[in-house]
Design a protein that fits this description.
single chain, alpha+beta, OB fold (Dihydrolipoamide Acetyltransferase, E2P), 6-stranded antiparallel sheet, 3-stranded antiparallel sheet, 9 strands, about 15% helix
Length: about 130
C-alpha cells in the first residue's frame, strides 16, 4: 500500500498535499481500493468553499457511494476536470492525476490536526 510521506491524511481517508497555502485534496489508495471501481464523482461545479468535516461531494463506485469530507477549510480554486469523463483515474493514480480539488486554505495550521504517513499506516492497520 502506497502512503506517500509528504502528504497529510484524514481519518476519512482523504489526503492533502500542501504547497504554501494551497492544498490539493484526493482520496487515498486505501480508500479507492475499499471502494472498488469508481464510476462517478459528484462535486458541484459551483462549489466555492469547503468547511472542515463537511461533505463537499461524493464518489460512486460499483460497490457503494461514499461522501467526501473536507480535511480543512478554504476557498475552492479548482476541481479536477479529468474525472468527469474518466472517473477511473482515481483508481489508477489516486495520488497524482486522480486528485479531486485544490483549495486556498484559510488556515494552513489546520493540517497539523491530520495524520502523517506513519500514523495513517497504523490507522489502516498497515
Amino acid at each position: 500500500m502506497n502512503i506517500p510521506a509528504e502528504l497529510k491524511y484524514s481519518n476519512d481517508h482523504e489526503w492533502v498535499k500542501a504547497e504554501g497555502n494551497v492544498a490539493t485534496i484526493g482520496i487515498t489508495e486505501y480508500a479507492q481500493g475499499e471502494l472498488g471501481d469508481i464510476v462517478f464523482v459528484d462535486i458541484d461545479s459551483d462549489l466555492a468553499e469547503i468547511t472542515f468535516g463537511e461533505v463537499f461531494g461524493s464518489i460512486e463506485a460499483v460497490k457503494t457511494v461514499s461522501d467526501l469530507l473536507a480535511p480543512c477549510n478554504g476557498k475552492v480554486m479548482e476541481i479536477n476536470p479529468e474525472f468527469e469523463d474518466n472517473p477511473e483515474i482515481i483508481n489508477e493514480d489516486p495520488y497524482g492525476k486522480g486528485w479531486l480539488i485544490k483549495v486556498e486554505m484559510s488556515d494552513p495550521s489546520e493540517l497539523d490536526n491530520l495524520m502523517d504517513a506513519e500514523a495513517y499506516g497504523k490507522f489502516i492497520g498497515q
